[in-house]
Amino acid sequence: MENIYSKIIGGKELDKKKKFFSAEYDYLSLKHQASDQYIASGWEIEKRYKHTTRLKKKKSEKEIFLNSCWSLFYNMGFDKMNSDKTEIGSNDVDIIAVDNETVIFAYCRFSEEIQKRDGLLDDIKTIVNNHEACIRYAKDFPDGKKRKHVILLITKNYILNDQEIAYMDKKVFHFNEENIDYYEELTRHLGSVAKYQLLGYLFAGKKIPGMDDKIPAIEGEMGGHKYYSFSIEPEKLLKIGYVLHRNNANRQMMPTYQRIIKKTRLNSIQSFVEDGGFFPNSLIINIQSKKLNFDYSEKQVQGAVSKIGVLHLPQLYRSAYIIDGQHRLYGYANSRFAKTNSIPVVAFFNLEKQEQVKLFMDINENQKAVPKNLRATLQSDIFGTSKYLFERQVALKSRIAQNLAEELDSPLYRRIIVGENSTTDYCNITLETIQQALNQSDYFNQYTKKSNDLISTGTLDTGSVKETEIIIMKFLKENFLYIQKNLDNEWNETDKTKRFLITNPGIYSLIKIMNDIVNLLLEEKKDTQKEVKIDELLKEMQPYLDTIISFYKEISFEERTRIKKTYGGNGKKLYWRTLQKALHEHYPEFSPEDMVTFWKDNDKRYNEVTYSYIREIELYMREDFKKKLVKKYGDDWFNNLPKSVYDQANKLASDKNYGKPKEEAVDPWTCLNFIHFRDIALNNWQDLFASDYTLPEEKGRSGKKDDKTKWMVKLSSIRNENSHVYVSVKEDEYKFAEKIHNWLISNIY
After folding, report:
1. Are 207 and 165 found together in one domain?
2. Residue 694: inside a domain
3. How far apart are CA 723 and CA 607, in angstroms?
4. Among 32, 96, 337, 527, which one is most buried in terms of CB atoms within 10 A?
5. Is the pTM of this model over 0.85?
6. Residues 396 and 523 in one domain
7. Contact 291, 312 (CB under 8 A)
8. Known CDD domains for this protein (predicted)?
């Protein structure tokens, strides 16, 4: 029988195995005549030598996944690992990772596509039943050292159900691809130091062998919270410390709030420490423990609020949460000073996580600003337990937005930017966009800010936060999934210049049009149905969604371009109103009043005539103003313009005339517009312009000349705001331009 420890390797043999696992291809060297059968089965020729052929074959996705998981533990600094699958008890274990204190057993399960219903329950039962064999393996390790052990189930493209999760209980930890991605990223930044974070997660609350727990400290109080101030060797704090990184992998530990550690910053801190540098400012931590012993010294300063003594730190993994100073702490991790230097610490005791979030926000508000998207992410944590119902609704919407980004079965999985995750071509939707769409929809109950009074009842809100979250998540995911299946190419467009659906305005508009459809359906049955049945509602929505799907299939390139070139809030509004219009064309009963008003104001029916009015008014005023100025100042009229107008006229003309032949040069006077005319009128109001340029309804009334010339400002605004092809002249703007035209040019009023 093979020795069950024979596949455990270390040193150079382990390094060699890592190199093999890191390779994307398998390689073979064979004599020429022997290579043909391999080539026929999918191997490629990499190079031909005199007597042999070197072949390569890309590893399967499953093998690459297994190898990357194995390599993760190697990169974390586990110095002994298995070279191949190892039979322990009744199971083959994919990964065994060993250091001086721990043994990790990992079973890896891979699927090409996301599996929701083809579960792993039988597999999990076998793994759990093999738990005792793993304990014996760790206990009888050849070097005789006592080690803690943990069993991991690592999956890719599996969504475990409640029964599977419950069966694992506390005997097996589950890591999905989110967890692996997180620890891989952490390891890229920290190297082997990332192992502290892993051990803190896996062995939380378990005793750290051989750790000295006593440390001199000062006990004090601030903000109603007890705290301890002390200096500690970084190595000790690294063992008990844990950082609540804002990351998909840590969702079950909400609220989390810390930024991911950055390698560049960490490297600079490590160099700084190695060169003798130090940080005099304190780390801020929260010690989480059932009990914290503090031995008061016999010698105290009489009358002092603070007390001195000896603090007994918990000898437990993940008992100190790092609120501020993670880079400073981890900067010491690989330093020769990790055991000999000390760093100052302010430690709070048993702060609630919401209080930790608030403290983190307060600290960073006064240092480096918390990024906008991270602030949006943290809203679910800050307001989740608020006494004000409207704040709980804010938290609920934030949580729904994050769930859409982070749940494996969400069509928007990894396409929404969470926390400080980077924007990419694939992940480009902001949390703010989702929250804005939810805020401007009717799904949720609305409450007054302070009195908790109900203002309006939401279409999908049951009054229970948890129930409402489940209902709206199902509503959004199922509808997005229906659209995704019917617009697969559009949904998965990789060229961002062609992308039209998976954009911030696109997702905002889909959520808004879904809200419109719900309102329409519920309006039709308001007298016959009191309670919304989500499955029936989803089915009833599909014909309306089919209309939206047809819109995407039929929309012209020119129309896409027109919508995409309308930026900001106007872009989102135009996009949504366009979807509404498409829905209205197929379902005339869908005709919201605000949609009708919008298209009345934005169908460009008034553009051409309004532009012609404005152009004629501008030409009329230019000619009439010059006539009046010449009458007063003679040939020197231009030099008597207000200085600011004179300068701007010359500058505008100079810019237009640069590089042109002299005969094509423009006159500075022709470069002026309504705002310039107003400045001229104000400078010569009573004697030249008051009688002819005071609106008829203003004549005979008292008032300042600034007020009586405001119509020129409004006309200028209409001219400037509607100066490009994508903006429509509103009806009231058209009527105003017509009124001025009739008065000045047609003499009709």
Report:
1. no
2. yes
3. 10
4. 96
5. no
6. yes
7. no
8. DGQHR_domain
